[in-house]
Design goal:
Helix content: over 70%
Number of helices: 17
Distance between the termini: 60 Å
Order of helices and strands: HHHHHHHHHHHHHHHHH
Shape: globular
Number of strands: 0
Radius of gyration: 21 Å
Structural class: mainly alpha
Largest sheet: none
Oligomer: single chain
Strand content: under 5%
């Protein structure tokens, strides 16, 4: 414990993993409630730090360690949320959904309103990342109350609901839900929730005949969010619309977003953005480069994007050789 306290005092953020490791060893050598609480708290801080650095695989390992430390379920709820989000980012969708459902089951029976809303939004995120936004919408919509959007957890739930509606092509619902969330988040100074809602609304409006308004929202969301998950999502969605004629993606923005996805370390979005870059190379006749980009990114077995990526790769090989025997 003294070693952990030293590292915590000199470098509370950078030494998060060191602190967590020492606290966990102290708990394992002499289990008691105080050491359990300290170990869980340190492991949670290390997981948060890992996510901040884009090290989602490490965040999942550390947060799973924290969940094995005994303690009150309400203290484990935010740790399970971190683990679920990290599992989604590393394409472990079944695990992400399992963790989120565990939280929902506990919160529905024992939790406060805020804990229920938190658990529900985490499950919604896991379902969205697993490419089942309709299921996410069905989970989130009954829980959302626009009049309660001033509560940070409800506002966050609403931003995820707007995302689910957008991903499920419920354009009007996505745009409408985003408005009270944006108003509440702006007043509260909650930039993450604000930018998430802006991105979903901005992506939906062009589908409702409001192209320039939607693109403007996406551009501003990307600008404000910068090199972050929210900025990456805004840039990814912006590619659907931006170009001289309003629809073909802009190559420079696509390549920039792809490089950002690699820095952020989010495998799911990296996989999506890779398909844009591969197609840019394909259209310019750089077939070898296009295949190399595809092969540089891991895909998840059985995931939608694995099939999409495979079909793009096969098409490029056919165009490069004229030989369709591999199809």
């Amino acid at each position: 414990v003294q070693v952990a306290e030293y590292f915590e005092s000199v470098a509370p953020v950078e030494a998060a993993a060191v602190v967590a490791d020492h606290d966990l060893k102290a708990y394992e050598s002499e289990p008691d409630d105080a050491l359990a609480d300290r170990a869980r708290s340190s492991l949670q801080a290390a997981a948060e730090r890992a996510i901040g650095l884009g090290s989602y695989a490490q965040a999942l390992v550390v947060s799973e360690q924290a969940l094995r430390v005994p303690g009150r379920e309400e203290d484990r709820l935010p740790v399970r949320a971190l683990a679920s989000k990290a599992a989604s980012a590393t394409l472990q969708h079944e695990r992400a959904i399992e963790l989120a459902r565990e939280s929902v089951a506990w919160a529905e029976e024992h939790g406060s309103d805020s804990q229920r809303w938190m658990a529900t939004h985490v499950l919604g995120l896991a379902l969205i990342e697993a490419d089942v936004p309709g299921e996410a919408f069905a989970v989130l919509a009954p829980a959302f109350d626009a009049e309660m959007a001033y509560d940070p957890e409800m506002a966050l739930l609403g931003s995820v609901l707007s995302n689910a509606a957008m991903r499920d092509a419920k354009w009007q619902e996505a745009a409408d839900v985003a408005v009270p969330v944006m108003v509440a988040a702006e007043r509260a100074g909650d930039m993450v929730t604000l930018l998430e809602a802006m991105t979903s609304r901005g992506t939906s409006l062009p589908q409702l005949g409001r192209f320039h308004e939607g693109v403007a929202l996406l551009r501003e969301s990307a600008r404000l969010a910068g090199d972050s998950w929210s900025g990456l999502r805004a840039q990814n969605n912006l590619l659907l619309y931006t170009s001289a004629d309003g629809y073909m993606p802009v190559e420079e923005e696509g390549r920039s977003a792809f490089e950002l996805s690699r820095r952020v370390g989010h495998a799911a979005l990296e996989m999506r953005l890779m398909t844009w870059v591969a197609q840019f190379d394909e259209y310019s006749g750089s077939f070898d480069e296009a295949v190399a980009v595809i092969d540089s990114v891991d895909t998840a077995d059985g995931a939608y994007w694995e099939y999409s990526t495979a079909s793009i790769r096969e098409r490029i090989l056919w165009r490069a050789s004229g030989d369709s025997s591999h199809l």
